Amino acid sequence: MTQPIRVIEMVGTATRRGQAHGRYAAEEIKEYTADRLARSGDGTDLGPEDLLALAEAMLDDHVSYDADLYEEMCAMAASAGISPAEAVVVGGYTDFIDTVRAHARRGPVEDNCTAVIVPDSRAAGAGFLAQTWDMHASATQHIVMLAVRPDTGPNSLVFTTVGAIGQIGMNEAGIAVGINNLTADDGQIGVTWPFVVRKALAQSTFDAAVKCVTEAKLAGGHNFLIFDREGNGVSIEAMPTVAHAVAARSDVVTHTNHCTVATTQAVEGRRPGPLQNSSLARLTQAGDLLASGDIDVDALMALTRDERSICRHPEPPFDYESCGAAIMRPATGDFWACWGVPSENDYEHFRI
User: Fold this and answer.
1) How much is the mean pLDDT over the chain?
2) pLDDT at residue 315, as a whole number
3) How far, in Å, CA of 254 to CA of 169, rounded?
4) In a domain, 110, yes or no
5) How are beta strands 143-150 and 6-12 bridged, if at all?
6) Given 142, 262, 307, 329, which residue has the most CB atoms within 10 angstroms?
7) Residue 167: strand, helix, or coil
8) For residue 1, what pLDDT is reported?
9) CB count, 10 Å around CB of 320?
10) Domain enclosing residue 24, as ranges
11) Mean pLDDT, residues 70-85 taken together
12) Structural domain tally of the chain?
C-alpha cells in the first residue's frame, strides 16, 4: 500500500511559515516531541527537566546562526503548544543526543541513512542527490513535505518530519541538500542540523550553501551532501570540532553513518557493533550498485529498495527502518519522494 506524503504549504514571513506548520500538525507535534524527549535520556540519569535545560542552553546559538529560522521555529512551537527548547529536541534530535552524551558521558546512539551524489559525468543526463531516510520506526508516521515560499529568497521543497524545520531538500536556485547522521564524541552547545539544511536551502550559490555547513557552530555530527544544477557536489563529514570534505565531480560519492578519515574518526563516538557493520555494508553495497554505467532515476529507486542492507526494516534492539527516501535532480527541478519503506511504497513526483 502506498501512503501519500502530506504537504504543508508555508508561505510568507517566518512567523506565518511557522504558524502554518504548527497549526497543521499541533497534536502530532506534541506527541512526537514527547517521544523524542523520552528517547533523548535513554541510558542516562537525566530527566525531562535536565534535558530541556540543556536544549534551552542551545537557543542562543540557534538565533545567532539564523534569526529568521529561529523565528519560524518559535512560531511553529507556539502554534503547536510546545516550548522553543522542546522544538530543538523534536527537530534536532540526532544532534541533540550528541550533546546529551557529551554532557552525561553516555546516552543513546542513532544510526540512519544511505546517501549518494551522482555527478553529471555518471548520470543519464543531469546528476542526482539521493538517499534513504532511516530512523527509529516510530518516525515514519510523522513524515511530511514542506513547500516553503518565503517573502525573500528561493522557494524550496523540504522532506522532513512534523516539528522539524528541515531535513532533506532542494530549492529553485538548483541547490539540493542531503544528510547522514554521524555519532560525535565532541557534541556541544550549538546549532542543530535542521537549521543548517534550511539555511543552505536559502542560498542561491553552491559556495554560500557550503559555508552554511563549514561556518556553523554545530551541536552534533552529520555528513552533509550538497549538489547543484551546475554539477558542483561535495560530501562533508562535519563534526562539532573538525570537518572533512570530498568533492563529487568525476564519480559517484556514497556515504552512510561512519566517519571515513582519521581527522573525523578521532572525535567519533563509539557505535554498537551491529550498527557499524550495517553502515559498512550499506556503503559497500551502494558503491557496488552504482559501480558502472549511466545512472538514472530508476537505478536510484532500485538502490533505495535494495533489501540486502540499504532498505531497512525494524529489528530489535534498535528498531530502525527506512522511513522514507528522496531523489533530487537540481538541474531539472525534479524531486521524487517516498513515504515509508521504499520497497513497500511508491515514489511521488514533485517539481520545484
Assistant:
1) 96
2) 87
3) 18
4) no
5) parallel
6) 329
7) coil
8) 46
9) 20
10) 6-104
11) 98
12) 2
